[in-house]
Amino acid sequence: MTKTDEELVLLIQRGSEEPFGILMDRYTQKLMRYGKKFLSSQENIEDIVQEIFIKVYKNIKSFDVERKFSPWIYRIAHNAFVNHLRSIDKEPLLFFNFDTLLNHPIYEDPAIKEKENQEIRVLLDKGLEKLPSIYRETIILYYFEDLNYQEIADILHVPIGTVSIRLRRARLMLKEHIKYE
Amino acid sequence: MNNDFKNRILEKVHKKEILMYPKIYFIVRLILAGLISIAAFFLLIFSLSFVFFSIQESGRQFLLGFGIQGIITFMILFPWVMIIFTAILFFLLEWILRHFKFAYQLPVVRIFIYSLFVTIFASILFTLTPIHLTFLKKADVDELPIIGGIYESIHDSAKDKGVIRGNVYSIQNNSLILSHNDNDKDADDGTWNVIFPAGFDLAKFRVGEKVYVAGKIDGNNIYAYGIHAFPRDR
Predict the structure, then answer these.
(1) B75 and B139: one domain?
(2) Same domain, residue pair B49 and B129
(3) Confidence (pLDDT) at A136
(4) Which of A45, B83, B125, B183 is most enclosed, with most CB atoms within 10 A?
(5) Would you call A153 and B105 a contact, using CB atoms and an 8 Å cutoff?
(6) Ordered structural domains, chain A, with CATH
């Protein structure tokens, strides 16, 4: 029977090495795809994904196996890519983002997500590159990595309302972009 | 390519070139972060309450009741350095807080307002304790190391800005004689003739009373635009 991520982590925490290989197999492509949102150079992405796995291994004992593993690894990945962008001066060091300032209403509905999924994926194929990075990151985590609002909020360290508003804006931008193409 | 780096990492893990941090490392780190946050919070409360205390103890709050000129002098004499230090500490704590789930889940404006409210409320409560007064008394007799100078600065002279503290020596129709001698190191001791605009009511002041005067100093004369008595216990 296939083990869950959390079960694999428990084995790693107890000293097994092999389950870490399985975790790497599961997340390498996902993190590469996530990294493409931040960087264009494939070589840089691979280097950073390696660093992410090393960091994951070093810090694995801080992970609580009662929680979901994917938001935890994406949080590490988010920090690694953002720090890399800052080191090459492509990401401003902001004290806060403007859309985290105030409350935003939350519109999370899995039924709508299911219905929109196909349409959005087509739109994403055509216009993802055109989206500003904060919207691209949110939309990748929601539609490609299948995380919910709370998990995305925990990765990005923003309120849930901010995730909701970013997704709404991203969808609108994509639709606008396709309309004018 | 991906298998390459997977194997490289697994090999390093196997050869113990990459090691897991032990659980105690994370516990110690969490405790240290907590202790630093608590220490920064207390320092923040201490510095803001010191600002409140210094304004109250020096009598500078009376300037706010002396009209526009008083307000301008109040702004000039305000402890800006301490306030800037406090603001830096506040934003540092805000930044630390936003790493915790309870804080980043809230909009920035709301967490800012909550933090500001807690900080001001705690500082006011701290100002009500006798700690600052005890430190001030120790500083006056040079028994407070490190921060003694900050406390001594509360009683620094602001004579060049036209502000004098002293005791009423005698009262005439529209003037009074004011003398000040606090036996400290600053050069604000002396005796002045304080002249008030015609019609100014000096009846409520008593000889021997400690007062706070603001005005234009010309030699030993002060052409005052405001006077306020200190509470009897000060």
Answers:
(1) yes
(2) yes
(3) 84
(4) A45
(5) yes
(6) 5-87 (1.10.1740.10), 103-179 (1.10.10.10)
Show residues of chain A in contact with B109, CB under 8 Å: 101-102
Q: Please tell me the distance in Å from A50's CA to the nearest CA on chain B.
A: 7
Q: Is the pLDDT of residue B15 over 90?
A: yes
Report the residue count for chain A: 181
Reported confidence tier of residue A145, pLDDT bands at 50, 70, 90: confident
Q: Is there a single domain that holds both residue B99 and residue B113?
A: yes
Q: Count of residues for chain B?
A: 234
Which two three-digit tokens encode residue B159? 């004579």
CB-CB neighbors (< 8 A) of A50 in chain B:
5, 8-9
What's the pLDDT score for residue B234?
58
Cβ-based contacts under 8 A for chains A and B: 76
A44: three-class secondary structure by DSSP? helix
CB A138 within 8 A of CB A161: no
B59-85 pLDDT, tens digit each: 999 999 999 999 999 999 999 999 999
pLDDT(A181) > 80: no
**Reported confidence tier of residue B184, pLDDT bands at 50, 70, 90:** low
Residue B10 lies in a domain: no
What ipTM score was computed for the predicted complex, to two decimals? Answer: 0.76
Residue B7 in domain: no
**Beta carbons of A57 and B98 less than 8 Å apart:** no
> Exposure of B174 by Cβ count < 10 A (0-12 exposed, 13-18 middle, 19+ buried)?
middle
A59 vs B contacts (CB less than 8 Å) = 20-21, 26
Q: Which domain holds residue B93?
A: 23-153
d(C-alpha B135, C-alpha B128), whole Å: 14
The tens digit of pLDDT for each residue in B207-220 reads 999 999 999 999 88
Considering the domain boundaries, does residue B16 fall inside one? no
Residue B98 belongs to a domain = yes
Regarding predicted confidence, which is higher, B49 or B160? Answer: B49
Same domain, B120 and B201: no
- Same domain for B60 and B133, yes or no, is yes
- From residue B52, alpha-carbon distances to A18, A140, B57 in Å are 61, 50, 9
Instruction: Report CA B72 to chain centroid distance, whole Å.
Output: 19
State whether A96 and B108 contact (CB < 8 Å).
yes
